[in-house]
Design a protein that fits this description.
The complex is a heterodimer of chains A (162) and B (115). Chain A has 4 helices and 10 strands; from the N terminus they run H-E-E-E-E-E-H-H-E-E-E-E-E-H. By secondary structure, chain A is α+β, with helices and mostly antiparallel strands. Chain A has a single domain, classed as CheC-like (Chemotaxis protein chec, 3-Layer(aba) Sandwich). In chain A, strand 9 and strand 10 form a beta hairpin. Chain B is α/β, with parallel strands linked by helices. Chain B has one domain: Response regulator (Rossmann fold, 3-Layer(aba) Sandwich), CATH 3.40.50.2300. Chain B has a 5-stranded parallel beta sheet, sandwiched between helices. In chain B, helix 2 packs parallel to helix 3. Chain B is globular. Classes of the chains: A alpha+beta (162), B alpha/beta (115).
Chain lengths: 162, 115
């Protein structure tokens, strides 16, 4: 995966998580995976379309999800109810939205679909032939694993090569 | 009035305002915002840009048709500069970047109420 696609996500995740959670996250070792992803307890999914297309996953445990939305809302969430789920989806949405803006500045236009949430560990998600960049982000509320499965469209690749 | 299709963001901004003594209406999309504005004429509107049914820019224009003195601030993801500029030309008084901090929401409201 190209650095021009990777770097916007690294920057966006750091900026948004620090702003929302009040302390800077620590980034773990970045890896590439091609095998199917098995979901964690809570996974926000944001689809991306345009010159850069695919999906971005934000996976975490339920306790991390509840702790994060509790911090953001300033009230305790003892359960991952509909409101808490909306909050987790929005974290994914805002990070991906920020990355999309940075991608645009780098010359790649993209648009986002409304975020979705997978609740429950163990669902298998295959991104087929698209490799996933795995970015572990350690926060004071637990780890968020960001998985970026994006590729340049052939038209965008051709334009960049020209 | 706080307008956002994402329930968490809508309630979060509303809570900040309510905790500081303001009465808050909520709307889930632009069309809902226009209906509620016509009915209640709130003192100020915090209006998300990207929403289903009617987006924030269209809702801004409809609200300003109803009330040319409407005091509206746009709530936007970082990087939507072109849309923000169009909203400012269409009569928005301010904009708030997501992710937002409570102080920024309150300062935007104060700016609107002073306009």
């Amino acid at each position: 995966m190209r650095a021009e696609i990777i770097n916007p996500f690294l920057q966006a995740a750091s900026e948004v998580l620090e702003s929302e959670l009040g302390s800077p996250p620590q980034r773990g070792a970045i890896g590439l995976q091609r095998s199917a992803y098995t979901s964690d307890e809570v996974t926000a999914v944001v689809a991306v379309t345009g010159e850069v297309a695919g999906m971005v996953l934000f996976a975490m445990t339920e306790s991390t999800a509840r702790a994060m939305v509790s911090k953001m809302m300033g009230q305790d969430f003892p359960e991952l109810d509909a409101l808490a789920q909306s909050g987790i989806a929005e974290i994914g949405n805002v990070i991906t939205g920020r990355a999309s803006c940075l991608l645009s500045e780098a010359g790649f236009s993209s648009d986002l679909a409304p975020p979705m949430l997978i609740v429950g560990r163990g669902s298998m998600i295959s991104t087929l032939d698209v490799q996933r960049l795995v970015i572990p982000m350690e926060t004071e509320f637990g780890q968020i694993e960001i998985q970026v499965a994006l590729k340049l469209t052939s038209a965008a690749s051709a334009r960049r090569a020209a | 009035m706080v307008v956002d299709d994402a329930a968490f963001m809508r309630l979060r901004a509303s809570k900040v305002l309510q905790d500081n003594g303001h009465e808050v209406l909520q709307a889930e999309n632009g069309a809902d915002a226009v209906r509620q504005y016509a009915k209640h004429h709130p003192d100020a509107v915090l209006l998300d840009i990207t929403m289903p049914e009617m987006d924030g820019l269209e809702a801004l224009k409809e609200i300003r048709k109803l009330d040319p003195t409407a005091r509206v601030a746009m709530v936007t993801a970082m990087g939507q500069q072109a849309i923000v500029m169009e909203a400012l030309r269409a009569g928005a008084k301010d904009f708030i970047l997501k992710p937002f901090q409570p102080d920024r929401v309150l300062s935007a409201l104060q700016k609107l109420l002073a306009a």
